[in-house]
Design a protein that fits this description.
The chain has 455 residues and is an alpha/beta fold. A hairpin with a 2-residue loop joins strand 1 and strand 2. It folds into 2 domains: 172 residues, Aspartate Aminotransferase, domain 1, CATH 3.90.1150; 274 residues, Aspartate Aminotransferase, domain 2, CATH 3.40.640.10. The chain binds pyridoxal-5'-phosphate. Pyridoxal-5'-phosphate binds next to helix 5. The site of pyridoxal-5'-phosphate has 14 residues, from helix 5.
């Protein structure tokens, strides 16, 4: 059979530079051109299908080429494809803002659009700083962020991120922030309860706030799951306590729900599990069901009022992106939220969450597995860093591709973050393929350790 992928791969490698990729590695690991997609499956030019276990970088919620979202976009495109959002407005932007205010935590009543997760984070950081500035608090000029956090790749978002892999090369370009520890469940000592562990960390954080709150605009967090930080997780208890500290020390609380929003952690927004209303909430990724780039930053009427004044260049929030509030993207978002609501998807996901939990136990049998953790629709299997190499992780990735599954590892972590339309049978397939992939590495590890003990 002729390889129809090959021609596309060749053309691609002649002109394209892919994100988050050392291009030279494609000499050994074939690039996969995708022709079409349906539901949880991607299909290449040879007709081979791949189960998209990572929701195409955590964006897809309701399946690829979802008929209802497709129909909504098709209808919108014949009416209005785009219009400047300064001085002009349009129905999808207004309807979506109304809907976001309706479904988000109480008190978030203003919506500012941007066009991707990183730019949403930039908006929240600038708004926070600027709101203090407009109140005359000009000494507030830095941010608190959690260890192991990730908020995007633009320079501001990277400044408040702490994952060395993405940050270190550019550190001379970034502004200083204050990093504080996180009550990561992976780091919890066996002899302590989670609350004891978190309380010790919170004491440290309070000390930092006592020393620095006068110069801090806000604390930015990824609620409950640090996705790009190898899917590390922490509990609502810690999230709630962090929020309380921001109230006590008068700094903003910025919830970056770009990755976890729209049901990933089991609730529509992760903040709901700690019963908190942040000062800023950043949304993107799942916002449009994985269709089009869009971000929304929600904030309170109080913050909005700090900017509402007679025109003065330094008082208004003059941030903009050309595609801010694009009508097609807003339409995709409205259709996505409508399906989530009408089909009661978050409630229905509870069964899938329980099923993921059920299949998760088997992974603990491998001795190279260091941790298996789950938060809602995210299941992560962390392999021991002393037992596996990057090459091993690539082997698991390639094994999965050979078995028709897209499982893209993050560091030492294999994870499932699938579209919500995944069936139990498809979850079984993911589990089986991941299990086999890890077993291959376990065999190699066993042989290696046996060799060491006999020499
Ligand atoms: C928590 C979080 N914030 C922000 C971003 C940046 O989003 P984008 O890739 O759309 O710029 C990401 C991306 O993974 C993320 O996980």
């Amino acid at each position: 059979m002729s390889d129809l992928n090959q021609a596309w791969v060749q053309r691609d490698l002649n002109v394209l530079w892919h994100p988050c990729t050392q291009m030279k590695e494609h000499e050994a690991i074939p690039l996969i051109p995708i022709k079409k997609a349906q539901g949880v499956y991607l299909e290449d030019f040879n007709g081979k299908r791949y189960l998209d276990a990572v929701s195409s970088w955590w964006v897809n919620l309701l399946g690829h080429c979802n008929p209802e979202i497709n129909a909504a976009i098709k209808q919108q495109i014949d009416n209005l494809e785009h219009v400047i959002l300064a001085g002009f407005s349009h129905a999808p932007a207004i309807r979506l803002a109304e809907k976001l205010v309706e479904i988000s935590p109480h008190n978030l009543s203003r919506v500012f659009y941007a066009d991707n997760g990183s730019s949403g984070v930039e908006v929240a950081l600038k708004m926070s700083y600027h709101a203090w500035h407009n109140q005359g608090e000009k000494q507030k000029r830095t941010f608190l962020t959690l260890d192991n956090s990730y908020h995007g790749e633009t320079l501001g978002a990277m400044s408040v991120s702490q994952v060395a892999l993405y940050k270190n090369t550019y550190k001379d370009l970034l502004f200083d922030v204050i990093s504080i520890p996180v009550a990561d469940t992976f780091l919890q000592p066996a002899e302590q309860t989670y609350e004891e562990f978190a309380d010790t960390i919170l004491q440290d954080i309070e000390q930092t706030l006592q020393n620095h709150s006068h110069e801090v605009c806000g604390l930015i967090v990824e609620p409950l799951v640090q996705c790009a930080g190898n899917m590390r997780m922490y509990k609502p208890y810690f999230l709630r306590k962090l929020f309380e500290l921001t109230r006590k020390y008068a700094i903003h609380f910025i919830a970056d729900e770009v990755a976890v929003g729209f049901g990933r952690t089991g609730t529509l927004f992760a903040c709901e599990q700690a019963d908190i209303t942040p000062d800023f909430m950043c949304l993107s990724k799942g916002l449009t069901g994985g269709y089009l780039p869009l971000a929304a930053v929600l904030t309170s009427e109080q913050i909005y009022q700090y900017f509402y004044a007679d025109y003065a260049a330094d008082k208004a929030f003059l941030h903009s992106h050309s595609y801010t509030g694009n009508p097609l993207a807003c339409t995709a978002a409205l259709a996505t939220i409508e399906i989530l609501q009408q089909e009661n998807i978050i409630e229905k996901n509870k069964e899938k969450i329980a099923y993921l939990k059920k299949i998760s136990h088997a992974f603990r049998k491998h001795t190279i597995v260091g941790d298996v953790r789950q938060m809602g629709m995210i299941l992560a299997i962390e392999l021991r860093s002393d037992a596996v190499t990057r090459k091993d992780m690539l082997k698991i990735y390639q094994h999965a591709l050979a078995q028709n599954v897209l499982l893209r590892p993050l560091g030492n972590v294999i994870y499932f973050m699938p579209p919500y339309i995944i069936t139990e049978q498809q979850i079984d397939k993911l589990a089986q393929v991941a299990y086999q992939g890890i077993a291959l590495i376990q065999e190699r590890y066993n042989a290696h350790t046996k060799n060491l003990s006999t020499t």
